[in-house]
Every structure is written in C-alpha cells, then in structure tokens.
Design goal:
Helix content: 25-40%
Largest sheet: 5 strands, mixed
Strand content: 15-25%
Number of helices: 6
Shape: globular
Radius of gyration: 18 Å
Distance between the termini: 60 Å
Order of helices and strands: HHEEHEHEHEEEH
Structural class: alpha/beta
Number of strands: 7
C-alpha cells in the first residue's frame, strides 16, 4: 500500500510540475555555453508585457550594455534579487538596458505584468516562450544573468541571485569603464569596491 501511495504521489507531482519545469530541466550543456562565450549574441526582437518590442541591436545602439535575466514567477531567489537589480538599474538606465524574461511557459503575460508591478520593475520584462533565448544559457537553475557588452558579444553568464545592489553596480562599472576596449569574458560578477 505504501508503495502504491508513493507511486501515485510521484505521478501527481510529475503531472503538476513537469509543464513548469520542462524548460528548467532541459539545460544547455556547459561545453555548448563555453563555446558561445565571447561570441556575438544573435539579434532578436521580443514583445515585452507592456506591448513594447525589445530589439537587441536597437538597445545596443542606445546603450553600452544589455543585461538579460532569466527567471520565473515561482522562483524565490529571483524575487529576492529583483529589488537590487532595480536599484542599480535606476542609477544606470541611461547606459544599461535590462530585459528580464520568464522561462516558465505557464507564466502568462498578465502574471508577468502583475509581478513587475508588485516589485516596481521599470526595466523591460517579458516571456521567453518565443524565441526561447534562455535555452542558449540555462545550465541548471535560475536566476541566470547574461551580459552582452557594447560590442554585442556575450561576456558573462552567471547562475544565482545577487544579494546587494552593489553587485550590479560593480558589474555595470566594469563593463562601462573607459578601459573596457574589447570583449573580456568573465566567469563571475566583478567584486564591488570596498
């Protein structure tokens, strides 16, 4: 009886969770990700939940850095990170563009819009249902942050939430520096100045 109950519980969990987690459980490989680093990010256009298109090439014409953030409405670390990202963005929005894309196909535009309002997010947010950009970067979990530098190249992919706005400002300062004259691939966020 216990075995049947365990099997039924397993089936129920699978039926309920698999649609939300399929995306997160089909990550790109570390090797495939490593091969993308330092390379040009292919251009894309995606409609944000406020109806405005976000075109990578246009954002790079107007900004020196594009930060992509992959997340989902059910992700507690994502929720903890967003206030810090927003705080840093408010200081750098003239030079930095951010696009936060939910990877969960069950996160509707209305859910994402409500989430953005709840956390007072002023940067672009949307769903990655199409064109599925995250599949190039997700290697295990979310949130995942991707930096596309002023040269249009993938310069950083890091998994995990940040716990301070200084983490983002240090990142922005590094890539916006006058000394940043060619693509440099980083393995992690630069450390904030003490």
């Amino acid at each position: 009886m216990k075995r049947i109950s365990a099997i039924l519980l397993s089936v129920m969990i699978t039926v309920l969770l698999v649609p939300s987690l399929v995306y997160a459980l089909t990550p790109t490989t570390e090797q495939a990700l490593a091969e993308r680093m330092g390379k040009t990010m292919p251009d894309f256009t995606i409609d944000t939940v406020n109806g405005e298109p976000f075109c990578l090439s246009e954002e790079l014409e107007e900004h020196e850095l594009v930060l992509l953030n992959f997340w989902a409405t059910w992700c507690p670390p994502c929720a903890r990170e967003f206030p810090y990202m927003e705080e840093a963005y408010s200081q750098y929005s003239d030079r930095v563009s951010i696009l936060a894309l939910s990877i969960d196909p069950n996160d509707t535009d209305e859910m994402i819009r409500n989430y953005a309002e709840k956390y007072d997010l002023t940067f672009a947010v949307g769903s990655d249902r199409k064109p599925n950009i995250a599949s190039n970067f997700i290697t295990g979990s979310i949130p995942t942050t991707v930096v596309i530098d002023r040269f249009g190249n993938i310069a950083l992919v890091e998994v995990g939430a940040k716990s301070d706005a200084a983490d983002f400002t240090a990142l922005f300062d590094y890539f916006l520096s006058e000394d940043y004259t060619e693509t440099t691939v980083l393995n992690t966020f630069p450390k904030a100045a003490s």
